Automatic annotation (TrEMBL):
Signal peptide: none annotated. Belongs to the AHA1 family. It comes from the Bacteria. It comes from Streptomyces mordarskii. It holds the Pfam family AHSA1. Residues 35-145 form the Activator of Hsp90 ATPase homologue 1/2-like C-terminal domain. This is SRPBCC family protein.
Amino acid sequence: MSEIVDQINDVHRQVGTREVPDGEARTVLLRRTYDAAIEDVWDACTDPQRISRWFLPVSGDLKLGGHYQLEGNAGGEILRCEPPRLLAVSWLFGENPGFSEVEVRLSAEGEERTVFELEHVAVVPPEMWDQFGPGAVGVGWDGALLGLALHLVGQTPADPAAWQTSDEAREFMTRSSAAWGAAYEASGAPAEVAAATMRATTAFYVPQG
């Protein structure tokens, strides 16, 4: 249990807004430090074989201007690629996804530590944001950062799908949802609104019964 709490507490979460060509976008930012060299973290985030070990299988023309597709998830275009510090992609899922981009920024903190930042900027349907707030994508990204943390120290679960339904995973997602509720409130959302979106997010990721 303490390890789950540590993994949650290792991440700084921030919620905001930004103007994009399609209108007002919502932003979620995650930041944490990994005990790994920047080149290793970059390789883990860009090598398709390594990505499949901690995130999802990926296919496509994985170069600047090329397109990628994550198995059963998002796809899009590789917009910026500046090794080993910056990767930006469009993040499109489903029909008529609208504006959605993800940017990963890395910075070295000494030879064996790397500050990892992931920012997801998207125009979100108001009804979805009103129900779930930032947790809808935030919990998923927390899981990705956990997967990367385990991969970098050689502790990736043998069966990630089975882990998703474990008590440990349910506890992780519950605590992640609460952390995003707190980040939403810290961004200026009324406490009762943040609490309601947190409850809806938890019920979605950790259904009871």
